Amino acid sequence: MEQKRVEKVLELKHITKKFGNFVANDDVSLTVRRGEIHALLGENGAGKSTLMNVVFGMYQPEEGSISVYENETKIENPNHAIHLGIGMVHQHFKLIENFTVTENIIIGMEPKDGIRLNMKAAVKEVQNISEKYGLKVDPNSKIEDLPVGMQQKVEILKCLYRGANLLIFDEPTAVLTPDEIGELLQVMQKLVAEGKSIILITHKLNEIMKVADKCTIIRKGKYIATVDIKDSNKEELAEMMIGKNISREIDKEAYNPKQNVLEIKNLTMLSSSKKKVLNNINLTVAAGEIVGIAGVDGNGQMELAEAIIKMRDFEEGDILINGVSQKDKSTREIYESGVSYVPADRHKHGLVLENDIAENLILIEYYKEKYNQGIKLNKALMYEEARAAMKNYDVRAENEYTIVRGMSGGNQQKVILSREISRDPELLIIVQPTRGLDIGAIDFIHRQVVRLRDKGVAVLLISFELEEILTLSDRIDIIFDGQIVGQTKPTETNDRELGLMMAGKGSGDE
Amino acid sequence: MNKTMEKIRKNLKSSQATIPLVAILIALFIGAIVMLIGGYNPIVAYESLVLKIFGSVYDMGETVRAIIPLILSGFAVAVASKAGIFNIGVDGQIIMGAVSSLLVGTLIDLPPIIHGIVAIVVGIIAGGLWGVLIASLKTKFGINEVISSIMLNYIALYLSHMLIKSFAAQEGTARSSLIKESASIGFPSLNTLFGGARIHWGFIILPFIVFAFYYFFEKTRWGYETKTVGLNPDAANYSGMKVNGILIRTMFISGALGGLIGALDTLGVYGYVAIVSSTSGIGFDGIAIALLGGNSTLGTTLSGILIGALDYGSQGMQFGAGVPSEIIGIVISLIIFFVAAPGIVKALLPKKKAPKKEVE
Prior knowledge:
heterodimer, A: alpha/beta, Rossmann fold, six-stranded mixed β-sheet, globular, B: mainly alpha, 16 helices
């Protein structure tokens, strides 16, 4: 392909991709030139991944065209994309743990010697490529013995071995330590110096400012702009990414916080690969206030929530509820001390989908005296309460015997919410409460949360939706890369400022 | 009103019963074809099979005797399955129950009845602990239960040989000495009434176990916990359940049922434990029975009856029609095969019965 010295490696024109009525990409255009790092910036759910899956042949767009090397092409499937010289470095690596580096790289394209696999040639080839691009990896190590940063290099080598000229990096720094990030950015620069092109999917502004030449911003599936990085700045990028969010008005009583219910002190948690997923977090939530944790997905929010209810262990620091350390308590004991938790993933954590509504409503408190008569569960009470809960929380289903799997997301979420609120909490931790719900359900859930706050409950709201954070919160903490990087109030801030902090500005521009 | 609604819901669920029923019919049909190919008359064969099962009071008693361990084994597997554990170690748990109750029955002196009760209880506990071992290896070290339970089957087998040879050896035979008369759990008077069929306490214990299984999973909070862990361990964890403890408890129950099988057969049927080169296979039949019965109380009981009766009746086929009893082995395997591959059965059923539900 080297002789075809064309400028435009990839050109997307007016791509529209729909899933049913949902428009994931709406008229998006993008041009990547040779030797260019082109950042693709957008919030969660903005349509970045969908767009890249279109490029990689996983989805077929409804409208628009794709040109590779200035030839209009229909990319049929990932194999076709690879054949065209497009490589994808996935966020979740697709490597075989107990194969060596070389075995992983050559898989499906093994150098052969008759019917024999020519391993020597393979190792040599891998070594050549890795030297050329400064990707130092021992070709004979097993993947399971390598740190995450190394595994990522193997992913990159895999693309290069397949002759990729355009590499798509999907949130490549999400899993890396700061040192590894620095190294990766160098590798990327080396790659483009050698004539490759890169699409960098990210929401981290620092990285974009450091390595990218151009940046295309998409928001809610729509193309916003493409800018030259040298003529732009973080503020401008953040504003384009977040857009203008009008915080909806919601009736709230005057802000009147009481004693602290939740206190988190110097909380640090390490991932299995020893990365600090939570880094010295300090946080308080008082009775009668909603504290919003603003941040982009994957910056430690889940870990924070799960640390509070002890679904995960942490390395350092302490968590106090009403002044009492929760360190040696079990999840159940923490719930009993007045904590309710609405998890982000309804299906994975919040519900047992094969069970009916009543069975799901007792998920946390089934063992309590109230629900038991001797060794028997008090089914009469269970189903009676379920009927009442369905009425109070407007859960729409045939009856309390309805299996929750078949219910809509909004009704499923109402089941969880009713369960957690009826436990009469002092502290409510609520994560992504309205993800994927329609306006009516969102409004209902927001009102319930505010009602609790007015009643004097301490609410910790973790959400990736800036609008939700601004609408509900009394105070806002911004989380980035496992750290609280800023604190503010909805009345004292705006989307732009929040967006900047969420994208890592202010956390030291190393 | 609630109850009726709930029943309706349950009945709707049990429309899944069509697949096992159709599977049984197809399997019997294919079995007949195999017999025809082999030059046998399938009608005569099936007739003598049925005759063997119901032919005499002796046969009826012995059929039930043969069915008891299979139903219990089905429940042993079903209990574990409800918690998401695949217990293929029931064979080992049976051996541990058998050898433990044997030792109590041969080495200790106790008054009649009490001796039997103690021996059964020890057998149950031994089987239960053998199950706990599997669960602990899983929760503590992450060892897959399939691997550990197969290995523990062998360990149990050879451990039983060692224990028999050391403590209850019968010189010159490949089996243990007999249990003491006081430890026997047979009903001598009923034995004669049933023409010598070996009727024992298990006939009375079984209905209680069937009811306990139903009650545990449908009514108690422990059953609720167990099912939650099996259906969604992440949600169980989120809810504050001690998932590992529940897994260990469940495997105790599962193993205890295996131990009970061993104890009943040792104390009520044989009176000794044989030194054999392989495990009984009852535990593996239990997997098939639980699968066929969809882990439900009624289903598991019925499929235990079916497999047990077919198995016992196959001897009659051999005598009555000269058809090798292995044919029934083929029929049973085919039943399991069609239940495990419901797509084949569904394809044979009328179209309206299978609504489109591919979209999740």
